Amino acid sequence: YGDLPEQTPGVRVLSISKRLPTALRLILFTIRLWQEARHADALTVCDGAAVGLPSLMVSRLCHLPLIRCVMENETRERFVRETHLEISDEVFPRYPLPDRKLRIINWLQVFILKHATRVIVPSSFFKQLLTDVFAVLPERMEILAYPPEPLRKLPFPIIAEPHSVYIPWHHMTPQDFVETLDALEILRSRVSDIRCIIVDQSPLTPEQHQMVLAKGLRDHLRCLGPISSAERSSLLLSCDVCYIPQTTSPHLEMMYQAYAARIVVIATHTPHHEEGIDHHHSGYLIPPHNPKALASAIEMLLPPSEVRSRLIMGGTAFLAEHASWEAHVPALIAHHAL
After folding, report:
1. Which H or E run contains 211?
2. Tens-place pLDDT, residues 95-136
3. With 70 as the cut, is the pLDDT of residue 338 above it?
4. Is 8 helix (H, G, I), strand (E, B) or coil?
């Protein structure tokens, strides 16, 4: 899409200007893709409804296998981004889509998934979801964990706050927020300088803001809006604990990012979180909807702690085995050998 695409050794980037009308862009993209695909062995498509249909057409014209890599339910992600309503992947298929654009994107997503030669998913949770909701055949899907993004540091240091907890907002529901405040209220009496940093936060509602003030947590809570990946990495590196709240969506990439930053991970004990945490070895799982258990886990894993050091070492080992580039690339090549 850029006028000046990045130069990567071994990679040729085909750019199409986004200043052009959408219909013309799609036509030009389809032509360019067909020209390149004639000499290819396979065609891989990542998330993006706009490129899905042209890629499917080109794969049929060139008699190529189409490999669809799925990281998320694209319709749901767009819906959450536009409405700020956090709806789980399991509930979302039963939720009425509010406009025609989302309905078209959802139809394209399902159509391409059903007609792809192979579908690569990041977790067994997503595999089951695509089977139950989109009727994708299980034998056409493969599970392959994606390595975390490289940690990008800011050119200036972020001052680490003592005893700080990193919480990604886009994994939180309103109930998660209330339970986090309850846990923070308990922790404040035990660890006077505790801080929770909620990152990529949507605006607090007046009720949530009043709740923070009523519990006297204003000095113990930092709510940050959307930030860059470098800011996110630097904040994560400056914290002691990363907490992944209760959710029914598989967000293993945040766990892997924390492992890479050598930060201890706490997550709610749900089936999809079990895929990213080896309890008591790479991280710590707590019962869902239990602020007391969350407060106790955070207190136990703040430095200095022998358990904390052991979990950090276990997280590094878990990442190397399940979600490192050394593990990812050979598996990806094997999946392309159709």
Report:
1. helix 206-214
2. 888 888 888 888 888 899 999 999 998 888 888 888 988 889
3. no
4. strand
Long-range residue pairs from 317-326, CB within 8 A, at least 24 positions apart, any chain = 317/282, 318/259, 318/277, 318/278, 318/281, 318/282, 319/148, 319/256, 319/259, 319/260, 322/145, 323/145, 323/146, 323/147, 323/148, 323/252, 323/256, 323/259, 324/147, 325/147
Residue type present at position 154 = L
Residue for token digits 């792809």? 116
Could you tell me the pTM of the whole model? 0.80
pLDDT of residue 2: 45
> Edge-to-edge strand order for the sheet containing 264-268?
221-223, 195-199, 164-168, 241-244, 264-268, 284-286
Q: Which amino acid is at 125?
A: F
d(CA 235, CA 237): 5
Predicted confidence (pLDDT) per residue in 71-103, tens digit: 888 888 888 777 777 677 777 887 888 888 888
Mapped onto helix, strand or coil, the DSSP state of residue 266 is: strand
